Fold each of these.
Amino acid sequence: MASSGAAKNPKKANLVDHYSIKHLLDESVTEVVKSQGYAEDVRLSNVRLLIGSIIIAIALLAQFYPKKFPENRDFLVTCIGLYPFTLLFNGLLQFISYTKEKNAFLFTYPPPGSFNSTGLIVSSKLPRFSDMYTLTIASADPKSISANKPVVLTKSVTKWFTKDGLLVEGLFWKDVERLMDDYNGDRKNK
């Protein structure tokens, strides 16, 4: 299965930019998880986009309303009245980010045809000035009866990249697939 995402186009990261490294690894993890039958759950992203769009729409209306000041007084008062709601919406975005997303970059549905009723939350960390990448796979609903214990992989990114910054996808995919097997193995042992 490792060959399905590897060797098409070599993936390269800037080795002095840890954001570039983390982004490339996270995208590769997403490919591995999807290749194992998990579909991405984008509902939370869609809610965040909707809230952001409402905030932007209010700002655009206030900025580009076609009438000039004395004539648009009532509209401006309405926009000023809506301003606290934009602050509330921004606070809601921060709350979602802090409580639900944390370090997660992928939310999934359960694989079709599985007996599992919960998807996955996949998160990662790559601290600044560190080469240790931590990948965590956990249940999207930890209180569910079909939820497994989270599994964690921590490894130096130097194991997966050449000195030129090319990702050795075969090695990385094997490590991620092994972690997926560990997560799914707990389910079989229950």
Amino acid sequence: TVLAYHNVRRIVRRQLPIVRRKLDKQITAMVLMRVIAFVCLVLPYATYRIYVTNFPASQSMPMAYAIGRLLQAILLSIFVTHHIINFYLFITFSSRFRRQVKFVLVKKCWQQWKYWCCSINNRIEPDNNSEPRNSQMESEENI
């Protein structure tokens, strides 16, 4: 984290094209946000697992055991959100990533969906029954 911060400070002073500096800043900001998200979302569960390993709750005390399991479920849910939040961090901090997501969703997926779901066959086809209608009526009358 400290190295990324120093990199941002150094980017401003370097003689690079403006576009390159902007992309470097975006990448550095994304790395910083991912590190912060990782620490905030993974550290509680890791700490809890270390605690439970050293001081396990006995099943003979059902209330303490139930509280421990509830806490584990909550912290595990927070832990799993770490994998989900990366997409939203990239969308928030990177205009290039937003353009790529828009391209994929609008140009690629939407076109495929329109082709598969919305291509309605509006052709009228003749009825190719082997029996004429009159013979069907006659067979019903005979019954």
Amino acid sequence: MSKKDGGECTEKVRRYMEQQNRPYSVNDVFMNLHKEVGKTAVQKALDQLTAEGSVREKTYGKQKVYVFSQDQFPPLDESQLQEMDRKAAELSATLKEKEKQLCETETQLRQLMSTPTTEEAHSKATQIEEEVSRLQQKLSDLTENRVLVSKEERDKVVKESDAMTRQWRKRRRMAMDILDAILEGYPHPKAQLYEEIGIETDQDAGVTLPKV
């Protein structure tokens, strides 16, 4: 390596140590510079910088650690240090708050992703309402016309009606939970939301949820 190349390597290592201002081993510097400077060249540069006083060397067992000499920086008075501590505390508090908000947002997102969309819930509820209405009408026709049917057939119809009613109630509750979640951040009345997304309530459809 020429003196010019060696000087460039040393300057690159010096700039890096000054910018980072934290302890590193030779291998740390070599890897963090993305191997732009050979490991041997990094060692020579650190040795030279240590000899010049730009870098301090500490030995921990068999490991040598290097850090930029703090004497190279302008001195800080007590008020500056206090201000830096205050800003550090503020940033730490802000970071904790942002992490908390991120965690809450991720939880809400997982919940929303696991539930059907408003459109899907509304479509399913409409289908169930139509099926329940059909079965109720069928049961009403059988009752009014006094059509003789077997106990098994009647029980089957009642069972299907009850099952559909339970599904209606379940889907209605899911739809209302989703709508309530939306309304928490919606700036207008509930009626306006229903109108905007095309929600038709039981009252609008003229139906009443029967008791199972």
